[in-house]
Amino acid sequence: MSDRSLRGMRLGSQSMESEAGVEPAARQTVTYETEDGERMDVVFALEAEVPTIWYTKTGKKAKRIDGGEEEPTKEKPVRTHWDMLLERRSFDELEVILKDRLNQLREARGEKPKK
């Protein structure tokens, strides 16, 4: 079994290629600033679409210094279950349904239903 073992290098941990003649991708540095004056430089590829808003590691919102304007969000507003329910029913209908359900629960418990 010892004649089958690999010697000299760890598998998957190092590359045999050298970095000679390799040019890194073109890059651009964009500076962002938060409202409280914290600045940060973020490196992007030259052909990357650079966002106008960047969030720091602490969750603060930072804007581009070079004047990139904030584009409006193209997302629809989130519709909750309540919003979808109100599209199908009115408040009066919901009151009637609620009273019926409460009466069913009271009957199941052995209580007298309320009117």
From TrEMBL:
- Which Gene3D superfamilies does the entry mention? RNA polymerase-binding protein A
Print the keywords alphabetically: Transcription, Transcription regulation
**Which biological process annotations from GO are given for this protein?**
positive regulation of DNA-templated transcription
Cross-referenced InterPro entries, in alphabetical order?
Answer: RbpA_sf (IPR038638), RNApol-bd_RbpA (IPR025182)
**Annotated Pfam families:** RbpA
- Record has Transcription regulation as a keyword: yes
Q: Where is this region: Disordered?
A: 1-28
A GO molecular-function descriptor: bacterial-type RNA polymerase core enzyme binding
Q: What does this protein do?
A: Binds to RNA polymerase (RNAP), stimulating transcription from principal, but not alternative sigma factor promoters.
Protein name listed in UniProt: RNA polymerase-binding protein RbpA
What high-level taxonomic lineage is stated for the organism? Bacteria, Bacillati, Actinomycetota, Actinomycetes, Micrococcales
Q: Tell me the name of the encoding gene.
A: rbpA
